[in-house]
Amino acid sequence: MNDYIKYGLIGAAVVVLIIMWRRGALKQLGDYVMETREELRKCSWPSVEELRGSTVVVMISIVLLGAFTVAIDFVLTLAFRFMTTQI
User: Fold this and answer.
1) CA-wise closest residue to 17 among 7, 6, 25
2) How far is Cα 40 from Cα 45, in angstroms, rounded to an integer?
3) Could you write out the three-class secondary structure of the chain?
4) pTM of the model
5) How many angstroms separate the CA atoms of 34 and 22, rounded?
6) How far is CA 13 from the centre of its chain?
């Protein structure tokens, strides 16, 4: 039974590729890949130092945002506890 499933999947893949080729989708996909590669060659990539600096900035930002979230949560929790115990 496993062989039938394997051959069925291979056959289905071949049929899909043939349909894509006849409709021109494979050529469009190839053109898309080539254009993407060409655009990526035009990009300016950061140096190792720039990448490290940006990584440090992102990590510090994450820590600060996390600390801010914890602080606000703590303050709101205290405020709600204070309001509910006063009633």
Assistant:
1) 25
2) 9
3) CHHHHHHHHHHHHHHHHHHHHHHCHHHHHHHHHHHHHHHHHHCCCCCHHHHHHHHHHHHHHHHHHHHHHHHHHHHHHHHHHHHHHHC
4) 0.51
5) 20
6) 27
Residue type, 33: V
Distance, in Å, from the CA atom of 69 to the CA atom of 61, rounded to the nearest integer, reads: 12
Q: What is the pLDDT along the chain (87 residues), one digit of tens a residue?
A: 688 888 889 999 999 888 888 888 888 888 999 999 999 999 998 999 999 999 999 999 999 999 999 999 999 999 999 998 876
